[in-house]
Amino acid sequence: MKTFKIKTVIYISILTLVLSFFPSVSFAQNVELSISVDSQEISKGEYFVVTVTFTGNQPIGDLTAEITYDEELMTYQSGGGNAVQLSNGKGGIWDIGSPYRNSLMYSFTFRANDSGEAKFEITHSEVIGHGTETLLGSPIGSKTITIASSEDNEPTEPVEEPEPQEELVEITRGGKTLIIPKNGPKTSLPPGFELTSLTLDNQVLTVARHAKTGLTLIYAVDENLKEGFYVYDPVLNTFYNYFYIDAEQRYTFLHPVEDIVGFSLTTLDIQGNEITVLKSDDNFNGKYLIYAMNQEGAAHYYFFDDAENTLQRAWLTTTNVEGEQNDNFSWIIFVLSGICVALLLVIFRIRTKTKSKNVRS
C-alpha cells in the first residue's frame, strides 16, 4: 500500500514536470474565425472588401495565419495594415495583440478580375493567449465569392422620383396678401439674418430674423407675382417690401408708425420696390420723409432725396413736421412760465412787506 502511494506521487510529479515544458498546449478550441464580404452582388471590374475576424475567449497575444485566394478572379488592392502581406494569390498575417483586445479584425480590398466562383481561404492559423502563452486555437475557414459578368449586372435606368410639392400658405396682413413657403427661403439670407420660426394664422413659418435689430423678413410672392423678401411688422401687423440703401451704413426702410402733421402717406417706386413714405402737403422740394432703421437697430425719420438717392436725418423737434406736438409743448412752456412769474411776484411782495415792518419798528 505504501509502495502504491509512493508510485502515484512519482507519476503525478513526472506528469506535472512534462506539462511544464509545454505551456502552449491547449486541449480546447477557444477562438473563432469569421470571414465576410461587404457585398452580395459583385460584378467584373468592381471592388469589394473581405473581412477576417479572430475572436478569443481571452486577450490575444500573437496571431499567425496563412491565406490563399484565386488570383485569376480577384486581385488584392490594399488593407490589413503592416501585419499583412498578400500577393500572387497567397500571403499571411503576422500580428501582435494586446491585453485589452479579445479580437483582431482585418479588412482586405480586392478587385474582381473576371466572372466565376472565387475562393478566399485561411488554410492555417495559430492564436496565442496574451500573458498565458497558451494556444487558444488554430481555426481555419473559407469564403466563396460569386462574381458576375458585367452583362449580368448592367445598371438599370434610375427612376426619377417627383420632387415633393412645397407647402405654401396664403396670409394677409395690412391689406397685403403673400403666398409663403412654410419651409422658408431657398435663397441666401441678407447679412446678419438667421432662420427662425414664426406663427401666423396658426401656421408655423420659417422666417429670417436679424439677431441685432430684431427685424423679421418673410420670403414670399405677392399678388403681382413679385418674389422676394418682405418685412413683417408685428406692431403694425402688416407686410411691406424689404428695401434698403447703403449710405455709410445700411438703412432698411420701414412703414411710418405715426401720422405727422403737414405730411401725408404716399407710395414711392424705388428701384422697382413700392415703398410707403410721407410727402409734404406744401413746399414739396423732391424730398420725402421716410422711416428707416440702421444696422444697429435704431429707427428714425429721414429726408429721402429721390433724385440723389440720399438720406438726411430729420430732427423733428426743430422742424414743422411735428407742428401739433410743438404747439402743445409751447403751451406747456407758456403755462409754466406764467406760474413761475406769479411765484416771483408773491415772493417779492412778501419781502417788501417784511422790510416795511422792520423800518417802522
From TrEMBL:
Leader peptide range in chain numbering: 1-28
Keyword Membrane: yes
Keywords, ordered alphabetically: Membrane, Signal, Transmembrane, Transmembrane helix
InterPro entries the UniProt entry points to: CBM2/CBM3_carb-bd_dom_sf
Superkingdom to which the source organism belongs: Bacteria
One of the record's GO molecular function terms: carbohydrate binding
Bilayer-spanning residue ranges: 329-350
Presence of the UniProt keyword Membrane in the record: yes
Protein's name in the database: Cohesin domain-containing protein
Species name: Alkalicella caledoniensis
